[in-house]
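Human:
I keep going back and forth on a fold encoding question. Comparing notes only helps if you start from a blank page. Show me how you would write down a chain together with its backbone fold. Write it directly below this note and I will take it from there.

Assistant:
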Amino acid sequence: MNTKLIEISSFLLLMSLCDAYSNEKNNNNVTRAIKSNRLLSEQENYEVAKVIYEEQPAYEEHSNISFTKFEQMTSKVPQVNSLDPVVLPVNYTTPFDDVKVEVKDSGKDGCSFDDELILFLVHSSSEKEKGNLKISSQIKDSKINEFLSNNDDIFNGKIGTSTSFYISNDKNKYVNLTFIRCGGVDEEMGEYEIRTIVPSLVQVLHDKKPTSVSMIFEIDINESLFRFLLESVFYESTVDERFKSTNKAGNKNSSNSENMKNLQIFLKNHNNNYNKEVEKARIYSKGIYFAAQLISAPPNYCNPVSLANVAVELAEKLNLEYKILGLKELEELKMGAYLSVGK
């Protein structure tokens, strides 16, 4: 029921009571609350009505709506508006699901530099290290190798900053070399540093829109942080446009990286466990994206009914047993607090 309508009805009811009962005490109880010439709040309505009911027994006899009935009525407001959608659109896939990811040893398997975009994750040079930092990964392309050997600027900058160059390789094909600084050699790498680096990675993927990418780690990174970095890149590169207009040019792509088909990753400290972390990153990022879609959905779309339908749909996709509890079951479980929040 419309809250404003309840307030107005209560206001008119109280005004009529003032005229109907000349008892000074009762009049004072009512007029004290309404002399301010404003609509009463829900709490004020409740308190004033309670006082009138307790102090005026004739009210129950002569009125069609007792205070008890009024109290019961407020508890019967439906949880879901009849006009609210019962289906909540959710995407269960991300563009990175179809990207072929290969993890290689940078000391044994050199990058061919045939990809459109080559990302270097490098250390930031300090005053002490200035001029001493070099690319240690195996470089098979002579032109690229010469460029890297004679350019110290690629290490200059704070963590999270990036610099890009277009360089011709041995096949006279121009490729993009982008260098992302990841902190000093002596600085410890943690989740905070990863969160600082990821936006630059995602921005480059968004701007270049490559179909094939090589990512060369000139930094040491443990398995869990490697998984966290990939998970963050996968998630941050996916754009939720379910409730945006589809006829605008800027909304054609649902992801910053939907063009990508291949991703090669070269690690200094490679072992087979890093391959497992890639699959974990896919799973975690999909779970985060799924939850984010529920959180960001408009309230009228994400209601108890549509949310239950999403739960059923997800359970069926994963072959899980499920049971949706209705109003009666929730009341039997004494979950009144849960029911009170409704949406």
Q: What stands out?
A: The radius of gyration is 32 Å.
